[in-house]
Amino acid sequence: MNLNATLFAQIVVFFILAWFTLKFVWPPIMKALDERAVKISEGLAAAERGQQSLDLAAKRSAETIGAGKEKAAEMVLQADKRAQQIIEEAREQARLDAERTMTDARAEIDLDIARAKDDLRERLADLVIAGAEKILLREIDAKAHAALLEAIKKDL
Question: Cα–Cα distances in Å, from 140 out to 31, 109, 152?
Fold first, then answer.
């Protein structure tokens, strides 16, 4: 065999293999690589959109938490004000109840005092009459002066 013929045959086979590879093998490989590159770029774009959505959600949640904290603080403040108002109302009601109780107690005391005075007057009248009767029994007839004694009793 001749070295030139072998070399020429190898060159021809190389070009046929190169042509076959470029015609049938290379396009599907390039198509697969292009599709993969598109998928990777779409995945990166989706990851970027996801990151932006995450950042936006974090901002919104921070705003919502801040608004919630403000609302909670406002509610606590309103609750404190209402508690103070209830305490003041309770104090005022207790003061009014105490005044009413004292007024009722004073009225009852005055009534008891009046009753006690009446009882004392009655006892005093009885004692005075008894003493007067003893004195009068010795000096005068009780039957004759009974009307006088009753008038004295009523005056006392």
Answer: 155, 43, 16
> Please, are residues 99 and 131 in contact by the beta-carbon 8 Å criterion?
no
Q: CB under 8 Å to 142, separation ≥6 — which residues?
A: 133, 136, 149
To 10 degrees, the CA torsion angle through 39, 43, 45, 51?
180
Residue 43 to residues 33, 38, 99, Cα–Cα distance (Å): 15, 8, 82
pLDDT tens, N- to C-terminus, the chain (156 residues): 577 888 899 999 999 999 999 999 999 999 999 999 999 999 999 999 999 999 999 999 999 999 999 999 999 999 999 999 999 999 999 999 999 999 989 989 989 898 888 888 788 777 777 777 766 665 565 565 666 667 666 766
Task: Look up the pTM and report it.
Answer: 0.43
Q: In this structure, what token pair is assigned to residue 42?
A: 């779409």
